């Protein structure tokens, strides 16, 4: 037992070291949402509260969010710099999945060796590694909370002493993310599946599931009450404009899922789901199968982002993979190939290295390229030092959070669309301001949003397929910065007579 614990600790440390090694290849983060999180954390550190009234985002707006993760992360910034905490803490949280997956796998197989193997695989699921190693996303806390809660719900029929800690974890999960709806739906599906298979649901399970369902609806309504009343069902898709929905909620494709999750966990996990749904019965497995099917349904109806959905699926399939290994091991031991059992597992390890381990680092390297370049960061900082406070700067949508974090200036738009009226029109106007050949149209739109400066970067060139702003006129636009990024000051206004 001590030996297994030591190995598990080593696997966790290897996972953490790999993540930190890749994360510190750059001083920045690979997604714009991370900079929104950092601003919230800095607000807590400086003022003791979240930034519910943001005077910079969309030129000034209200924000709705689940607060727990931001306060949790802010706590560590009293011991280290904010950006350092943003690199280290999310990776520690994501690495905690390793022992959690071990617990889940062991609870299903009662085989320590197979569970250790699953724990190691869980540290290098390509899509999970890629999306979390250089991000400050709440997902890094959601994942360990969600899967530890699943483990405790699985243990409830054996011992009611897990009820209290299960409820505590549910509170933390609800306070962290609206992804608690996914777990809620999975637990309801689990009850339905057990009823269909005539498997008894214990009283403790039923009580906690009912409590969680009611608590989830009530709390999320409190967190997002204004957004719900203002935007109705579009809150489900975070009020994302139709023109962007396909980018966030892409269609689920099998080949993409195999590459993102890994060949071995995907096929072996799906086989276990098929076998236990149609041939065998296992109450514990039904909980994970229910979670997997729920994610699949959410992906099909585009109720969860594709990347996040694949992360949830990948972790679930890794746990189910250990059940496949147990079944396979039992089968081999009954055949003439029992003496070659070790070769089979070496073969699986080799495939894992090729289809999961190597792609994890490959995809992580690609993700690093999405971090803002130093020339861009310097340009944002220049804006913060050399433009009047309260100035509005035109940037691309993806640069909105970067501007507010580094430049401390107002953006026209960013990727947080909740409580924003008609965000699609803003995106259309941003596109026109970068691509129109007509000076009067550009100036008219810039006056509409009170824009004082235009931020023309490589991102803008790539996003809109342009090399220059076609409407530039020296009487209306003054080039004030040109070091990789070009910044123009707007000099003209169109007035109605």
Short description:
The chain has helices spanning 2-23, 33-47, 68-76, 82-95, 97-109, 112-122, 126-132, 139-155, 163-176, 180-196, 203-223, 225-231, 242-248, 254-261, 263-278, 283-300, 306-333, 341-368, 374-386, 400-407, 423-435, 439-448, 458-464; strands at residues 53-54, 61-62, 392-394, 410-411, 451-456, 477-483, 485-490.
Task: Supply Rg.
Answer: 25 Å
Shape: elongated
Residue runs with pLDDT of under 50 for 5 or more positions = none
Number of domains: 2
Average pLDDT, all residues? 91
- How many H/I helical runs? 23
Task: Please outline the major beta sheet.
Answer: 5 strands, mixed
* Beta-strand content bin: 5-15%
End-to-end Cα distance, whole Å, is 84 Å
β-strand number: 7
Q: State the helicity in percent bands.
A: 55-70%
Compressed to H and E, one letter per element, the order equals: HHEEHHHHHHHHHHHHHHHHHEHEHHEHEE
Look at the helices and sheets and give the structural class. mainly alpha
Q: Going across the major beta sheet, what is the strand order?
A: 4-3-5-7-6
